[in-house]
Amino acid sequence: MTVLTNLAYVKQELEQTCSRIGRQAQEVTLIAVTKSVKTEKALEVLDAGLLHLGENRNEGLLAKYEEIGSRAIWHFIGSLQTRKVKDIINIVDYIHSLDRLSLAAEIQKRATKRIRCFVQVKTSAEEAKQGISPSEALDFIKQLAIYDKIEVVGLMTMAPYTENTSEIRHCFRQLKELQLQVQAQELPHAPCHELSMGMSNDFSIAVEEGATFIRLGTILVK
Ligand SMILES: *Cc1c(COP(=O)(O)O)cnc(C)c1O
C-alpha cells in the first residue's frame, strides 16, 4: 500500500471520529512512526503531506535525519538512555519519553535550546511499559521546574495491546485526568496542553478521549 492510500483511510477515520464527538480533525496532529521502515518510505510520508516523523532509536533517527534534515519535525518516541541524549537532543523537536529526573538533568546539560517534552506515564499494568506511575507524575512534573531547557508540553502514554477496548479507554482517560490536574497547577514550565496517545490499533479511542498527537506506524507505512 502507498502512504497516500493509507493516509486517506486514516484521515477518513479521524474525521468520522471527530464529527461523532464534536472535535475538529485539525486539533489532532499525526505523527508518522517510521522506526521500522527505510528513509525512502519516510520521504514518501513527507511527500504525502505529513510533516511529523517519529523514531524510537537513535540510530534510526540519525540515519534518517542525515537525508531529511529539518524538512521534518522530529519526535523521539522511544525510551531514551541517558548516555545517548547528547547524540540526538539538538536535532529533535519533541521528546515523548521523559520519565525520570536523571534524564531531565542530562537534557538540561546537553540541550542548546528549550526542548518540548512529554512526560511518559505508565497507565497500564503491563510489565514492559516505560513511564512514571500516575500517582507520582504530578510531583515529578513539579520537580522539573528547575530545568529551564525543558518545557512540559504534555503527557504521553501507551495502552496495552489488547482487544479489550474498555481497558484501552481507561488508560487514555487516566492520562486526560492527570492532564487536568497538571493544568490546574498553572505551572509556567508545564502548560501541558497536549496528549500524545493512540497508535494504529487504538487511535480512534484515543481521539475520543482527547488525544492531540497520535503516533501511527503500521497503519500508515506498511
Ligand atoms: C512503534 C510505536 C508506535 C507506532 O505503533 P503502530 O502500532 O505501528 O502504529 C507508536 N508509539 C510508540 C511509542 C511506538 O514505539
Task: Please give a structural write-up.
With 222 residues, the protein is α/β, with parallel strands linked by helices. It has one domain: TIM Barrel (Alpha-Beta Barrel). It is built from 9 helices and 8 strands. The chain has helices at residues 3-21, 39-47, 58-68, 85-88, 101-110, 134-143, 165-184, 203-208, 218-221, and strands spanning 29-33, 52-55, 73-76, 94-98, 115-120, 150-156, 194-196, 213-216. The chain is globular and about 45 Å long. It binds pyridoxal-5'-phosphate. Pyridoxal-5'-phosphate binds at residues 33, 35, 56, 77-78, 158, 199-201, 215-219. Residues 33, 35, 56, 77-78, 158, 199-201, 215-219 line the site of pyridoxal-5'-phosphate (PLP). Belongs to the pyridoxal phosphate-binding protein YggS/PROSC family. Keywords: Pyridoxal phosphate. It holds the Pfam family Ala_racemase_N.
Keywords:
TIM Barrel, 42% helix, Ala_racemase_N, 8 strands, alpha/beta, binds pyridoxal-5'-phosphate, PLP-binding_barrel, Pyridoxal phosphate homeostasis protein, 222 residues
Number of domains: 1
Question: What is the alpha-carbon Rg in Å?
Answer: 17 Å
Backbone shape: globular
In sequence order, what are the helices and strands, one letter per element? HEHEHEHEHEHEHEHEH
CA(first)-CA(last) distance? 7 Å
SS strand fraction: 15-25%
CATH topology: TIM Barrel
Continuous helix count: 9
